[in-house]
Structure of Cytidine deaminase:
Amino acid sequence: MNGEKLLEQAKQARKNAYVPYSNFPVGAAILTGDGTIVTGCNIENASYGLTNCAERTAIFKLISEGKSDIRMIAVVADTAGPVSPCGMCRQVMAEFCSPGTKVILSNLNGQSKETTVGELLPFSFSKGDLHGENEI
Ligand SMILES: O=c1ccn([C@H]2C[C@H](O)[C@@H](CO)O2)c(=O)[nH]1
Ligand SMILES: [Zn+2]
């Protein structure tokens, strides 16, 4: 499984997005160490703030299935350049990924950017901060 194939899965999941308010469907796909793929789409609500992004849908599905070991995340939307995950999703990625975990961001024209969770959210708040273990 490579980034291109994972992006294809994200594009498929994007078709399931529930976006009556923004009309901005987003798809995400996660690859784990054992080759499992879990996908997600954004799911909106009449109470706008309850919206769940595609990335968090995929991560929460994965965790709720008792899986972890995220190796790669792909995200796709109809943006001018590669889509850029929101801050909330970056924080959730930081919780369940390593700083080096690969993230492939793309648009529908095939413009894509490969980055990492650590690049997307440097100096993130984490478990260690709660327990007094992190130093600057
Ligand atoms: O990376 C992103 C950016 C935005 N959205 C969603 C949230 C909302 O449903 C819509 C517009 O912000 O796109 C995602 O799912 N992922
Ligand atoms: Zn988000």
Notes: The first helix runs from residue 3 to 14. The radius of gyration is 15 Å. The first strand starts at residue 26 and ends at 32. The pocket of zinc ion (ligand 2) is lined by residues 53, 55-56, 85-86, 88-89 (CB under 6 Å).
